[in-house]
Specification:
single chain, alpha+beta, Uridine Diphospho-n-acetylenolpyruvylglucosamine Reductase, domain 2, Uridine Diphospho-n-acetylenolpyruvylglucosamine Reductase, domain 3, Enolase-like, domain 1, 3 domains, 5-stranded antiparallel beta sheet, 11 helices, 33% helix, binds flavin-adenine dinucleotide
Length: 291
């Protein structure tokens, strides 16, 4: 059985949109193919007539500063993000997340855009971007527009992007300033391929002993990438001590929905370990912010 009939390689975003709209349907965009091809082979994604390979689009392959933002094109492979000092100096949480995605072979082809467009609530790159305050750049036939990151997600595996007419072109992340830092950690079951159980990313801004701002993302903490906004509000402008962290953990547990996943972990286990995971991730970011 053929999974597709035609394979197109556009060389610009406008060409890619043109192909999405006009190539013989069903038309499906592909980047690294590490999620999509598996799903097609396993019958969890419909076969395509036309695959639109986005990886030759130059605008989607850049990592650069744009004003006060770090811009990462959607088709930059995970291994190139890991090798970028610009990312390392501005988005430690994303480096730590990329360093845990799969192994070297997958990282050489898997892209950040595919990780996000797949719309899983615990994808590692996605959780890091959620805490880093990213926004997405969306392309359609009218041009480019920015979308707040969490508006990309409708449910597990359900992206708000209409892939028959639009694409994720890239991501904007605010450049890191003095007193700001981030961290990412994951609990996983080591085996042939590590089976992730829970991940957490924290971005924070510190002024002496006070938490001036904080963003906390945990996956899976709900059907879409979860921001622990109640804990964030509780910690904002407060002096950091052990009690504040314990109160924040309570808010995370109240607001998050930590479900049982077959083969991964029970809800009870996730609720038990989230306290230590959040505390460790927050503490790592806090220590970094002192440098
Ligand atoms: C062995 C293995 C281990 C893995 N381990 C991890 C892990 O530890 N952590 C983790 O988070 N993930 C992991 N993954 C999942 C996977 O590698 C990532 O989700 C990857 O980043 C997906 O990117 P891709 O370029 O391969 O996407 P593709 O497979 O090409 O595409 C995924 C989906 O996104 C759509 N799409 C792709 N790019 C765009 C775009 N720019 N705009 C709109 N839609 C788009 C496609 O149509 C498709 O629906 C693993 C995968 C494998 C095979």
């Amino acid at each position: 059985m053929h999974l597709w009939q035609e394979f197109r390689q556009p060389n610009s975003i406008s060409e890619a949109i043109e192909d999405l709209l006009n190539a013989p349907a069903p038309v499906v965009p592909i980047a690294g193919g590490t999620d999509l091809l598996l799903e097609m082979r396993q019958g969890r994604h419909e076969a395509a007539n036309t695959l639109i390979d986005l990886t030759s689009v130059p605008e989607m392959n850049v990592i650069e500063k744009r004003g006060n933002f770090l811009y990462i094109g959607a088709c930059v492979p995970v291994s190139q993000i890991l090798a970028s000092n610009l990312v390392r100096n501005n988005a430690e949480a994303l480096i730590e997340a990329c360093d845990l995605i799969a192994g070297p072979q997958v990282r050489n082809t898997a892209t950040l855009g595919g990780n996000v467009a797949h719309a899983l609530p615990a994808a590692d790159g996605t959780i890091a971007l959620a805490a880093l305050g990213a926004s997405a750049e969306i392309a359609n036939q009218n041009g480019l527009r920015k979308l707040p990151f969490l508006e990309l997600f409708l449910g597990p595996g359900k992206s708000a992007i209409d892939k028959t007419s639009e694409l994720i072109a890239g991501f904007y992340i605010p450049l890191s300033d003095h007193g700001q830092a981030s961290a990412f950690k994951r609990i996983m079951r080591p085996q042939g391929v590590a089976l992730p159980i829970l991940n957490c990313a924290v971005w924070l801004e510190r002024e002496e002993g006070t938490v001036k701002g904080v963003r906390i993302a945990i996956g899976p903490g709900g059907p879409t990438p979860f921001r622990a906004t109640a804990a964030e509000a509780l910690m904002q402008n407060q002096i950091l001590d052990d009690e504040l962290i314990q109160e924040a953990v309570k808010k995370v547990l109240e607001q998050g929905s930590f479900r049982t996943s077959p083969r991964r972990a029970t809800s009870e286990y996730r609720k038990h370990v989230v306290s230590g995971l959040f505390t460790d991730t927050f503490t790592q970011a806090w220590e970094r912010s002192k440098k």
